[in-house]
Design a protein that fits this description.
With 241 residues, this protein is an alpha+beta fold. It has seven helices and eight strands. The protein has a three-stranded antiparallel sheet with strand order 2-1-3, with no helix packed on it.
């Protein structure tokens, strides 16, 4: 489960307990613990009005009063996101939108509930996705994208339900059978879809299809190439098909 990012002073402390378990916290560490401050950084609050995530470009520009979202995606994360999305079969534009809303691209973001890093992974989610260090951008994004893919598969491509579960948890979605009636979760889903699809646009499905060939020469189309590891696939965004 991931929770919305809250603007704060992102002071991160690390300590090892008596069992050898490494802990990260943004609050004062109890006396007697051998702790150290590993990061101190002011996290910028996400804007309330955001445009669609577009293909990355250099230089800032404004249109109709909005600052284009492509100017706030750090170049250092583009390759990491693309690699993780290729591995797990997720649209990079969707991950751009999620990271923007979750942490505003702050790799050291830490919420009051304990959600960590760029994609705000909760501790148990990090463990389930085999993420050892949630403040490592490579591990955090790969784990977050892997979890997002799991949710999209679980809800059979229903993006609203997958996003709701990412924010409020699978239990809440199961209980209500739809996007839970929590203002926080409903606003979260709306913000992600607005960024992903564009301001004032109807939801348009985004998907990535991989094209390959079987041993008999038959054409193979899949959205998850990991199911065919012995085949060579070429990635094609859905809108190009």
């Amino acid at each position: 489960m991931c929770l919305p990012y809250q603007a704060s002073l992102a002071d991160i402390y690390q300590y090892v307990d008596e069992s050898g378990v490494v802990h990260f916290t943004n609050v004062g560490v109890a006396k007697g613990k051998n702790s150290r401050n590993i990061r101190s950084e002011r996290a910028a609050a996400p804007s309330h009005t955001e445009p669609a995530i577009q293909s990355p470009a250099n230089g800032a520009s404004k249109s109709n009063g909005y600052v284009k979202a492509d100017t706030v995606i750090p170049d250092s994360y583009l390759g990491i996101i693309n690699t993780a999305c290729d591995r797990h079969g997720v649209d990079p534009a969707l991950v751009h939108a999620i990271v923007k809303v979750e942490s505003d691209f702050n790799p050291y973001a830490l919420s009051s509930k304990g959600a960590m890093g760029l994609m705000q992974l909760m501790p148990q989610t990090a463990v389930d996705m085999n993420v050892k260090n949630s403040f490592n951008p490579h591990e955090n994004i790969d784990g977050g994208v892997k979890y997002l893919k799991y949710l999209m598969d679980r809800y059979e491509g229903n993006l609203s339900l997958a996003l709701a579960a990412y924010n409020s948890g699978e239990t809440a979605v199961k209980r209500w059978g739809t996007v839970p009636p929590f203002r926080e979760t409903q606003n979260y889903v709306k913000r992600i879809l607005k960024l992903y699809n564009g301001t004032d646009r109807t939801l348009v499905p985004h998907y990535t299809i991989y094209i390959g060939y079987g041993e008999d020469g038959a054409l193979l189309l899949t959205d998850n190439p990991s199911n065919h590891r012995d085949k060579a696939f070429k990635r094609k965004p859905g809108k190009e098909l």
